Fold each of these.
Amino acid sequence: MVNLIKRYLLFLLFLCCAIGSVNATAVTIPETCATTDYYVELIENMDTYTTKAILATYSYDSTVPEISGVNGNCIYFPDVSSLARFCNIFSGTSPSVAFGGEFDVYKSGVRTDTTTLFLSFKPTADGTYYGNMSINVSSSQLAYVYYDYDGGYVYNKAWYYYQGAQLYYFEDPASRYSSLALVPSGVFSMTNARSQYDNSMYASFVIFDYVEYEAYDENSYMVASTVMGPPERGSVSIYTEPGTEIYEDSYLWGTTDNGGLLEIQLPLGERTLKFVKDGYWDLLKTITVSENNTDVFVTMAPSNAIFQVEKEFSGDIYPNSIARLSLDVTPVKTAYATKLRVSGVEVNKVYYNTQELPKAADGSYIIGDISSPQNIVIDFKTTSSWGERTFTVELSATDIEGTAYTNLETINYNVLELPFLFEAPDSWAIGTNEVTLTDMSGESYSVLLVLYDKSGTEKWSSSTNLLEYCEYTFEVPIEDAGEYILELNAKSGSVKSYYSVEIIEPVSLVSDFLTANPGKVATVQFKISNPTESVKYYKASLSCPFYNDTIDKTFSIAPGTVDKTVDMSFEVPEDLEMEYYQLTLEVFDEGKTDPIYSGHVVLTISNASLLIASVPGGNTTLIILAAALILIVGTFAALRLKK
């Protein structure tokens, strides 16, 4: 019902447009339809009866278009001239186009952009003036021109020119049609002498092209408007294989140059383009053309590959981050036993249809059969430095006949320089670690630092507003040895970077227990490591309840040293009253006030005259073993003496 109402409203609209025509001639519609390669297809999906009924209401002041027939919402013409007349205006006083221009034009069987321009020339006070209009077309071609005036008697004369050459001398009061050979950036002009009446002159152009034009004169005596035209266009830059032909339906928009680039103007909105090149599978791609320049990147699949692959990165890529590559994979035909391999980059995770894929024993990711477009996401770790980078993605599969195919995709990406300078400790340690950020971009933005342990649990976070060219120091506390990730977010999360933090337990006691005799020297032993590439300097402090001051020792550890044993010796006083004491050992990095290690040793005071009593870690079990050893040695000695 809605479409029916719309048809009748359209019918009444064009009926009103046709009223008032002077000396108008109606079109002749044949009973039978002879189809040709010159036709228009109405946007409104009308039946043959409705199309003919509306068409019969139109009348033209000059030569009417010849019609070959009507079939549904298609109107056919015997030649290009009749097609052009149909696309022109009814008259100078009624600058309207049939069906409001709501139709697609097919010239030689190919859908063709068509523009109808209307020029109105208004007389001046003295009747003499000049009007000019620049007309820019894509290539040299014919324009179909209609000249007219709004009645009366021309006292003097009027002339039409194109590129300085006279086209038409207006004295005959009859309207005129003619054709004009246009060239890119051509100029159309009109000169008019004084008229007896207040006449206005008109010209109408039908050009089978997308046209850019501009009317200009000092006093705006020439006014130009578009009566019918293709949709507004946007610039499109297409990057693909060199020598690729790019079609829309059967219309060839152009061929990419030796660098694989084609720059064209396309109507705004969704367009479906076809990419054709020898040695490659044909590719269909739907793009959205905007008013701004649209960049289109297309990867053609060689004929020995089974997939067409479109690649896209999510956001900007920065050093020490996790970048995301999205692959839209379209099988040319059903692919079986598909495998994915990634080389040249450290893969973090791979997702197929949002599900994480495990890594197989041979290093590949098993995808399986693919019969329709699918999406594969690869999260990978970026390098610590910025610049151009590359890696490869291989997709292997077979078809139903067992023929093997391989897509080898080269992935190029650019790691951007961070907008700030990041300074962290050469080696992280238990305690407070300083991280300094200095802005290098000249902008202010928020920064958030988050520390996670290896299970992903947040251990610490802090944020600040980093001012332009200023620095800020974060104090990152770490309580225990282990593996951590420091996540850095800046500019509302658009900049992300990750830093691995590993702290090896640097200090461990040889024993938590020590037995010593009064007046003897006791020794606390601990092991310490230096996993860094630099010499490390430390201070050890041992606190004993029976001493007023700590027992201190400074020492150094060579790079890469593992489990170096350090002794802390002291003399046990003679007059101790208790049997047990707790000693406290603290180890400090050079110049630091917070210890990297703090532990306790239980000291047992023994009055037994055993050698083992003052041995580090001596205890009851060791004493018994030592006594047994002495007993055995004594027994052997006695036996020898007896002999």
Note: Confidence is low (pLDDT under 50) at residues 1-22, 610-615.
Amino acid sequence: MPVYETLDRRSFDEGLEACQTLRPKTSDTVRIALIGGFLPRRCGIATFTADIHASLAVAAPEIAVDVYAMAPAAVPTIFDPVVRGVITEGDAGSFVEAARQIEASCAEIVWLQHEFGLFGGLAGDMILELVDRVSAPLIVTLHTVLAEPDADQRRVMERLAARAAKLVVMSERSHDLLRSVYHADDDQIAMIAHGVPDRPFGRASQFKPQFSFAGKQVALTFGLLSPGKGIEAVIEALPAIIEDHPDFLYCIAGATHPNLLAHEGEAYRDRLQALAVSLGVDAHVRWINAFMETDDLLDLLEAADIYVTPYTGAQQSTSGTLSYAMALGKAVISTPYVHAVELLADDHGVLVPFNDSEAIANEIRYLLGDSDRLLTLQRRAYDRGRDMIWPVFAERTCALIAESRVVPKAAPIPERIGIEGFLRICDDTGILQHSVHMIPDRAHGYCVDDNARALMLMHRLDDDALGKCGQLTPVFAAFVQHAWNPDRGEFRNFMGFARNWLEDVGSEDSCGRTLWALGATGRDARDPGLRQWAHELFERTAASALEFQSPRAIAFAMLGADFVLAARPAHDLANRILRSGADRLIALYQAAARPDWRWFEPVLAYDNGRVSEAMLRAGVRLERADVIACGVDTLRWINDVQISPHGHYRPVGSDSFGRAYELPRPFDQQPLEIWAAIDAASAAYDVTGDDIWLAHARRAYEWFTGYNDRGVIVGDPLTGTSKDGINPRGLNLNEGAESVLAYQHATYAIRDFVRKVG
């Protein structure tokens, strides 16, 4: 009995069943992860997030909302029961754990409420620890968009813009800044006004007694108390107002901002109160030093006649209390910060200069002295608020969620694949490395990596495709031959468009990949002369593989050697490469592996499946059970970490490279991994005979057809071209040689695999 038939076949049957059933269920339920502050935390973001949760529960019960609440590090908080996860400000581990929870929940949308001071780190960059690890489309509501960000603020915003499917803003000014300052795409930005409650108009007299305001004309400012609110300017305006309206009362409601309170206690409030005393107006100022629950706040707003927002700076992107005041029909007097300028345009309120007490006094006196003008502004504000009430907000939000949601769908393996996309990037020198969209990019020239893979492709094309491009076979072979640098005993890799070599020696990986192509050509080329050429060049160049240190370079050379041995079983150099490579990879595995990390290195990189495939091929040819077992074990592990919770294939992307003992991040995914996964699964099937490996290979190939994290079609069977991969926002629209070749090879490989299994 062959040695490999004694292998432990644990969980293969279970794995096959799971693989066959892991498909997205058709369901009307959409699960979203909502990240922000949450009650009972006392801040505007917490209230806003809680209001989102409540409005969606009423308007869209088919949306399941999991709340992940931001918690301040220094203040223990017991959140409402609806909170599924808690993220501690400044604690990187809690952001990583929340990302793990979100992934495990199969959330289809991640919706983040962003404010720089909410998360910890430089400009709140701790949130990137989470968003870089979640695969679902990301919607970010930006509560602050700065016109002049510092370096860290810009870095965070640009990362969020690159990661987000949608950026939600509440003002046109923020929309413009996202485009001009942060270079966000216009179709990425959505404008949804701050949600507001829906209450009847004109009930101030009904609510005044509740706050002992009966018989008073009342102006209100509400919010967490801090110097930037500009309350000094209103207090300084009071003597002039009271002179004309002695029954006037200015109500200042809201607790001191927690950060200010921690830094200096109530010193700021004490200074404001002392100012009122010094001006002789303290009897006309009502202080409510408390964080008010929403219903109490709304009652207080209803009791007021005028709402004042005297902020000292123009950069305030949004003000929830301003939106609330308008929705409840209050005449608004405000300084011209961004949100106020837009909401109060067209005579929906009154704007006054920053820090101008006289202007504030004049406008309040004017409104209180003209009841018709006061009522007109109140009605205008109320009417504008109808477009912001929570049911309207929920309707627009649901449309945004539906637009952003991804439903991966697999398509059948194509019966044939075109060759036109491949031909587009070839010329009489070889295959060009890169494209800008579909146009070949001559600026980056050629590389031996791609020309070696192109040479391999020539041996597996069907007759129709070969008839269209078979004349390129000697072109690719000539490129490989010319890449050899006999003076250095290595292959060169990069060549400029002018046919000038850009280096004397390429990387180990490019040299190993070239030996792999020579081995494949020596076995599979249709022309006997080409097979002989490949064997001779392999013989002359392959000794360098015995010194390779890169696991992938070792694996590529082993695969090439296995091809050589298939044609010439007694080939001594190929035998040495195979044996030495197997021993070195086992040693690397033993040094790096842990119970939860069954891999050859402490990091992941590209072409991961090739290393396991090389061990499987070598183990069979050398009849070494230990090598086969290592190949099977590592391939199972790398397959497991490349399957999303939804069940589709998620290849290790470049965002994951070089991160020691860290499981893969979702992006940027590239076609090369698909080809490697299929070939490795085919090798595992040859060893075990288990159909689970065909299921794995099919799932990997379906990544090209739309069964992926963004539900996008990556490969085009009509032209045989492929996009360069999947990033957080969808497709990388370029069509480089590596991607096109990977798609071509993967298509032929999966067909061969299916035929082999029968």
Note: The longest helix spans residues 572-592.
Amino acid sequence: MPYGKNVNIDNNIFHTYYAKVKKGSRKILIVDDDAVSRSLLSHLLEGRYEILTAENGQEALDILKRESAEICMVLLDLLMPVMDGYEFLRIVREDLQLSMIPVIVTTAKDQEEEEIRCLELGAVDFLPKPYRMELVRCRVDRMIHLRETAAILNMIERDPLTGLYTRDFFYLKVAQILQDYKDCPYDMIVADMERFKIVNERLGVEAGDRVLHYMGERFKKLMGPGEICTRLHDDLFAMFVHHSDAQRRSELLWQWDEVVPGVTIHNPVIKYGIYENVNSNMPPFGMCDRAVFAMNRIKRHYGVNVAIYDHSLSKDILKEHQILDSMEDALKEHQFLVYYQPKYDIHNDCIAGAEALVRWIHPELGFMSPADFIPLFEHNGFISQLDFYVWEEVCRDLKAWKAEGRTLVPVSVNVSRIDFSDPLLVEKIVELTDRYGIDRELLHLEVTESVYMDELWQIIQMLKDLREKGFKIEMDDFGSGHSSLNVLSELPVDVLKLDMKFLREGSSSKKSILGFVISLSKWLNLKTVAEGVETKQQLVELKRFGCDYVQGYYYAKPMNRQEFEIYMEEHARAEEDKRDYLTAEFQEPAAIGKRKETILIAEDSEMNREILKSMLEPYYHIVEATNGKEAYAYLKKHADEISVILLDMIMPVMDGFQFLKKRSKHKEMDEIPVIITSELEEDSDLMALKLGADRFIGKPYQQSLLLLSIQNMIKWKKVSKSDKKK
């Protein structure tokens, strides 16, 4: 067994033969910049073949890549603009699939040097100019016949690494089995080892080969009479087996329970997709496609290892094909739009940033959720192009907002797993921000937690480089179950985005975990963002835990650029009004009063009392009580001395609600303004106001807001007393 190459025979002989012969219509591509020559050859060969034409090598290459499975021959001129025949041959020779298509070069007579060069580049024959019509037809027919015959005769039967059938031979055997046993029900099963590439990259390709060989041996041992298996490609295997009972099925769908000699793999997982009772009229590769489609639905779903294809998924398959067929045009035509969702500073109640989210307005399918296309793009690699598109759109918007003098906030953009396979990733992001003149701290790079589990050290190094260059790094979906706390301390991360399932599921144990994670982040000097915040109750709990930022529908939905600009303008005006109000209206009591007013603080937390005292003592005389009972006792004797009561609602002995009820029975106490200073449960603040409280100020405290509120309460009290005297 040849270890060290992850050997895989990946020819398209069967596909090519099946497509060309069964359809009965084979295509020939004529490449010549001379219109007369193209017309002459087309007229000669049409009727026997479907003719495609190109005026230069580049145009021909585009056609070939798009329709390689249909094209059985290329007739190539050498001297052409844009890309000549020599360059075309060189590029085709380096592509395994395209190099299978025979190329006949059309040349002038007595051009021996050109012919030798073309043979070295992969040409199979020559047609001299001017053309002899019967000779052209015979050579083309003969070459196509020889190639198609050789394709079947030379088909490789066994994969050299695993000893299983090659993919194409497997397809032929499946077709033969179905022909011989028409009434026997069969299943197509595909199997894939999750994150196999980590084995190659961490342990080496030789270790990867050993794993593949072991998997092949294991699957081969499970095959019964009339059953076969193959390695389709890389670590994807397929089995064609009798439709069987549950016990037999459990044997086929084995999970890793043995050690590969010389290879240690932590928690290997094999995912299975099953197409049951296959349609015998379907080509074998179509059966595999259905099983793969089912399997892809559970990729990265923890604990789910088996998926069965359902015929109701056919619509989904058609939709996915429609999405994949139109994705490149959508990018060129700017059908993808960037939406912005604000992030709020939970303590200062101001916008602290935004997240860039992509939306697709498809011309036929309409508005599409990212859940419809992002997983597909992650699977086929197109996500890298989409990510770069979003990054550039965000940089373009930031540049425009800067030029217009608008308020700028950091914007988070997604960096997908596949982006890190690009060795030039760091350089590309740096070049992008420099080109648009964007401060790097304004572009936060958001990486999903699970990404850190793939090629960990390579990703860490890239993120360190980006961080050193001034970018902020956010870990998305933290708490979804992948990260090790030991690894977290080593990761180059500035912000943790929390998985809100801890609050949505509501159990006290999960909320305790959320509190622990936030405390841990503070210990690691990391900021925390909770996304998906939808209710006041969630906000109150996040405040209590000390979360730094939130985003979600409770504050604002994702919005397009124009809506976001309006939203930011309105918010900026509101912030300016609030700042002006808080700074311009407050006057130090010492400047306008003969003596300091007395404030009663009823709060059981010593730390909170100290915070309030530090804010208020420069201006007011402070009296303290550790619970409602102490505050009530003090007021019975000194009610006329107290100007304002700062009241916490959750206290031992007598809480704030009990205090307000008891106070309401005494006129001299009831006239003293009460400001609630508490993190209340949803609707609790309304209950407190109904019991006689005058104002609510949340924790943590904003000094300017607190001072202004107290000042206004004192003014209101004095005006009220003056009115009563009149």
Note: Residues 1-5, 7-24, 581-586 have pLDDT under 50 and may be disordered.
Amino acid sequence: MPLTLNTLLPPALLDNPTQAAAELPRALMTRANFIPGVRHRLGWRGVRDCAKGRGGLTVRITGMPGVYGLHLLNSGGAGRTGQATFAISYFPAPLEKRVEAFSIQAGIAAQDEDYLERVREFTLHEDLRALFGIAVLEVHFHADGPGISLALTAPERDRVVALDGVTVDTPVGMVEAVLPGSLDQDFPALETATPLFEALAASASYCLGYPPESLIKESRQGRQRAYGEAIGLRSESAPGIRDVRFGLGWGMDVPSLPDMETTDASWSAPAPPPEEFKDAPWLSADIRGASNSLDKRTMGITDKPRLIVLTGFLGSGKTTFLARFIEEQAAKNGFVAVVQNEIGQKGLDGKLLGQSYAVTEVDEGCVCCTLAGSLRSALSGILSEFQPDFVVLETTGLANPANMLSEIADLDDMLEFASVTTVLDAACAPRALADHGVARNQVRLADVLLLNKTDLATDDDLAALEARIRELNPTADLHRTTHGDVPSTVLYGVNFRKALKRPGPILAPMGHHATHGDDGIQSALIELSGPIDRRAFQAGVSSLPHQVLRAKGVVRFADGVTPEIFQYVPGHHSLTPSREEPESCFLVIIGQEITPVAENFRAAIGA
């Protein structure tokens, strides 16, 4: 069923054409990624917000080894029309052939150890945007109708001439990598940018329920850059190269650019489109050709997603195992919804976004959400939006799955329960099992046990630990792993049809199941009424005692512009800019006998 722009974009944006144009690419990409088969058919392999740099997206497209970057350059409007311009970057994979077509400096940057990490937050790195920028995307939004248009402008080849040549310091000495007057860069920009544009345009047709009704293709004499010590950097005519602009309109015509010299193609419905575009993916709103391509509801597919409850004490390796599980399912066109449940008096994402769940990432093969309200309410929204094949409820390391079983049993109309899978750290599990009832119950409740990080323990220690595990749970399947690396077919069988041995019920006085509270693990809330001093905060964090197992919150500093998200585990903490303006700032501290610790911390930071 078509969404129409009225449902694709929040209603408030429809009366703000400029903001609607700026938000449209994100809305189209995210919506197309909701349905696994549609996502694969249209060519999306992942869409991710830049967490630290506002307004940026990193995108992966089928058939392209590298990562695209999209960030807003400017926006504006007049009356009922809004316009936004985005820069498109392409960050090649370090071993990709396209690296050689970029400049020598770009090629060196692509080999840096932190290259891929910098790409994930490319909006913060002006050097990356300068080296790897390839094209421009225009988005127009007309509130009357409403209508949209998308236009891509890119040179056929992006050329850079090194007038003085380029020499590179290598292990064998200085080498002349580019001769004087030769090309330092000769990149196929239009060819590289087109897959992203076509996937975006096909998503627009799918989301709106109808194909574009107008098309324009324009071009002009291309330009190239030349640099040298005598001239600095200059722009000059590039013989034989054209800048090409290609645009599509849904419910509106594509505005022309006055500096384009030639109209190479022009079309408006109901006339048949030009022959060269007859197989374009955006020319139809129907998604055909793959068994997992369509919205399961519209196809009458009623298979319920399989639910895995993933538990394990702090630091056991749940996240590593989960990443491998997602990668394996994505290779089979499976889609995983990950729901994370955290301990604390305030849910961080729930506080910021005010809903039952907060989508934190839509990536290849999965959507990640943080539970911020009731489990049933959150899953109802996630299942209706994303239609996953699997749901993994990743609990905090301090959660006892026994306390969720009744709520999970109430979800059998929505999900098919598959497993309680518990991950243990082979080196740390003996102490956790000795000291924490929650850790013991995580083992007792499991039907699949992963003894992880076995490379960090001796054979004798592993044998003793397995004996202790069998005392707690004699029936569950037990597997030794390193880095959580074990195929799901080994754990759950082909198509999840392996008959797992369910442990017997855990008996406890008055039906009580151990919680983190039984181990003296509590959470304390610190409300922050105003900005605090950054140095005092950092000093306070550095002095947190060993009984603090987790801390999180939203903090506003006296020297900061925006609030920052605080995350802490023993030995590591981070502060990142918040993408949302919170209603209030706060800190949640989790640990054993935490009340006096929280009071000391409050005093140390002057809260």
Note: Confidence is low (pLDDT under 50) at residues 289-302, 343-358, 505-518.
